[in-house]
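ARCHIVE CARD
CATEGORY: sequence design from structure
SOURCE FIELD: tokenized fold
FIELD CONTENT:
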């Protein structure tokens, strides 16, 4: 009985942790239905195609491409990666506006980043 209870607790905790993790998506998925991901944490991997940032400004901006499309990333704490770098970005999806079915200013607010 105790063994079954422990197994149930472990399975429940594992399910909870998996559901809390950022969902890995393609950029095409984000662009196809941005409202579905609005203010939700996602994880995207790709190659940096543009990078803008300056040491005196705490905000950076870069674009990544994953083979399905590209998306802008706003980095508020750690600068920007160099052009050509392979990165995995976790962050919240946001858009400036939505007009009809068109998203304007779709971007990811970076929470964490790792290089591949």
């Amino acid at each position: 009985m105790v063994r079954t209870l422990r197994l149930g607790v472990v399975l429940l905790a594992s399910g909870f942790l998996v559901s809390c993790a950022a969902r890995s998506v393609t950029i095409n998925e984000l662009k196809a239905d941005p409202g579905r991901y609005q203010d939700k944490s996602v994880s995207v991997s790709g190659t940096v195609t543009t990078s803008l940032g300056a040491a005196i400004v705490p905000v950076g901006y870069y674009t990544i491409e994953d083979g399905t499309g590209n998306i802008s990333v706003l980095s508020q704490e750690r600068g920007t990666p160099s052009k050509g770098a392979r990165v995995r970005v976790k962050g919240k999806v946001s858009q400036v506006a939505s007009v009809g079915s068109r998203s304007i200013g779709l971007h990811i607010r970076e929470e964490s980043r790792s290089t591949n």
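CARD ANNOTATION: Confidence is low (pLDDT under 50) at residues 13-20. The first helix runs from residue 2 to 20.
SHELF: design records, drawer C
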